[in-house]
Design a protein that fits this description.
The complex is a heterodimer.
Chain A (H helix, E strand, L loop, with lengths): L8 E4 L5 E6 L10 E6 L6 E4 L13 E6 L2 E6 L8 E9 L4 E4 L3 E5 L1
Parallel strand pairs in A: 1-9
Antiparallel strand pairs in A: 2-6, 3-4, 3-7, 5-6, 7-8, 7-9
Chain B lengths: L2 E5 L2 E3 L5 E8 L7 E7 L5 E7 L8 E3 L7 E6 L4 E6 L8 E11 L2 E7 L3 E5 L2
Parallel strand pairs in B: 2-11
Antiparallel strand pairs in B: 1-3, 3-8, 4-5, 4-9, 5-6, 7-8, 9-10, 9-11
Chain lengths: 110, 123
């Protein structure tokens, strides 16, 4: 059971817009910024979003992030087959004094 | 180019020990906090702990699941961080990643990750 809650799966067809939610509490998302990671099979995670809604250089603007209170979401517009991957949210938790991750969401492009 | 390369993984019996290394290059290692994150096969990411820089007194913090069994250290002269794992349990079986945590403007995140090293705890 992960501290941050994500749906285990999400899906969409090419060109569609999909969102992945991440729910936490006042000690993590509520008081610290969130980052998102994309993980392709057999590879290390890749930073997709930081500071709730900031994209690192090289990440397409099809990806966007938002946060409100103790919840956050990652949106992917213009879905492409290469977006098929696992997505994780993460934040520092002040109570646990450590980083907490969501359980991950497997995105399938139909 | 920033690189993090883990090594030292392998097969170990329950109750045994293993020491992982994380060799860094391409950045000022001594200024950086290094975190360890693990991932069991088919499962999600789990934060293991961190070791901060000399400026932050090499402070360490561990996840509850490994506290008292795992110890993080570093040798800045060798640009290498270590994860000493003792009293290993079958549930410690996972790919272990080292990663550098960057902080800017009040926000922190993991940009650079190693390729991971597999630890298998089994009899």
């Amino acid at each position: 059971q992960s501290v941050l809650t994500q749906p285990p799966s999400a899906s969409g067809t090419p060109g569609q817009r999909v969102t992945i939610s991440c729910s936490g509490s006042s000690s993590n998302i509520g008081s610290n910024t969130l980052s998102w990671y994309q993980q392709l099979p057999g590879t290390a995670p890749k930073l997709l979003m930081f500071g709730n809604n900031q994209r690192p250089s090289g990440v397409p603007d099809r990806f966007s992030g938002s946060k409100s209170g103790t919840s956050a979401s990652l949106a992917i517009s213009g879905l492409q087959s290469e977006d098929e991957a696992d997505y994780y949210c993460a934040a520092w938790d002040d109570s646990l004094n450590g980083v907490v991750f969501g359980g991950g969401t497997k995105l399938t492009v139909l | 180019e920033v690189q993090l390369v883990e090594s030292g993984g392998g097969l170990v019996q329950p109750g045994g020990s293993l020491k992982l290394s994380c060799a860094a290059s391409g950045f000022t290692f001594s200024d950086s906090a290094i975190h360890w994150v693990r991932q069991a096969s088919g499962k999600g990411l789990e934060w293991v702990g961190r070791i901060r820089s000399k400026a932050d007194t090499y402070a360490t913090t561990y996840a509850a699941s490994v506290k008292g069994r795992f110890t993080m250290s570093r040798d800045d002269s060798k640009n290498t961080a270590y994860l000493q794992m003792n009293s290993l349990k079958t549930e410690d079986t996972a790919v272990y990643y080292c990663t550098r945590r960057d902080c800017s403007g009040g926000t922190c995140y993991f940009v650079y990750w190693g390729q991971g090293t597999l630890v298998t705890v089994s009899s």
